[in-house]
């Protein structure tokens, strides 16, 4: 079964003039085809950029800062401010690939550890956990302390501001 060919110009009776005229209700098939190819091209471009996004995942902050500073330096090219801003931007862009990325297993282990530490919600439970962590050296417990500090600041932000800090 085949689709019907679409009409390019549809003739309509115009009652105000009493004449026939061609209406531009339908678009030419070529414009639709071009739009379809543009959409497919954009989709394929996005799909090809996903692995790049995964590779950049751990390094997005210096890349973002480097991009912003480099763009600002290029825009302000004629002044001394432009050269002052351009150099750190280029250094951040060039140093970002040198930062080691975190493997997927490390991210999964850290998120699991964050979920396990989220159980300690009251201040008494946190003091007991911190007293236990104080018995071990900081190089062993630094990751646990970072997670607990992040969770503590997250809890402070969720409180109603009029109640006070503690």
What does this molecule look like?
By secondary structure, the protein is mainly alpha-helical. The protein has two domains: 31-98, no CATH class; 104-158, no CATH class. The chain contains six helices and two strands, in the order ββαααααα. A two-stranded antiparallel sheet has the order 1-2.
List keywords for this structure.
166 residues; 2 domains; two-stranded antiparallel ribbon; 6 helices; 64% helix; 6% strand
Topology:
Elements: E1 10-14, E2 19-23, H1 29-56, H2 60-75, H3 80-95, H4 104-117, H5 123-133, H6 138-158
Antiparallel strand pairs: 1-2
Helix pairs in contact: 2-3
Return the structural class: mainly alpha
The helix fraction, in percent, is 55-70%
Q: What is the helix tally?
A: 6
> In this structure, how is the largest beta sheet organized?
2 strands, antiparallel
Low-confidence stretches: none
Percentage beta strand: 5-15%
The rough form would be described as flat
How are the strands of the biggest sheet laid out side by side?
A: 1-2
Order of helices and strands: EEHHHHHH
- Beta strand count: 2
Task: Quickly describe the structure.
The chain has 166 residues and is mostly helical.
């Amino acid at each position: 079964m085949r689709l019907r060919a679409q009409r390019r110009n549809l003739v309509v009776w115009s009652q105000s003039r009493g004449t026939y005229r061609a209406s531009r209700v339908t678009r030419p098939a070529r414009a639709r085809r071009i739009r379809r190819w543009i959409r497919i091209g954009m989709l394929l471009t996005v799909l090809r950029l996903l692995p790049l996004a995964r590779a950049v995942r751990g390094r997005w902050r210096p890349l973002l800062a480097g991009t912003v500073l480099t763009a600002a330096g290029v825009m302000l090219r004629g002044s001394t401010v432009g050269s002052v801003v351009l150099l750190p931007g280029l250094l951040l862009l060039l140093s970002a690939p040198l930062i080691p990325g975190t493997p997927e297993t490390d991210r999964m282990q850290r998120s699991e550890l964050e979920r396990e530490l989220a159980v300690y919600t009251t201040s008494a439970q946190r003091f007991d956990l911190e007293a236990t962590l104080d018995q071990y050296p900081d190089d062993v417990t630094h990751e646990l302390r970072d997670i607990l500090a992040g969770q503590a600041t997250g809890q402070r932000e969720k409180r109603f501001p009029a109640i006070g800090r503690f």
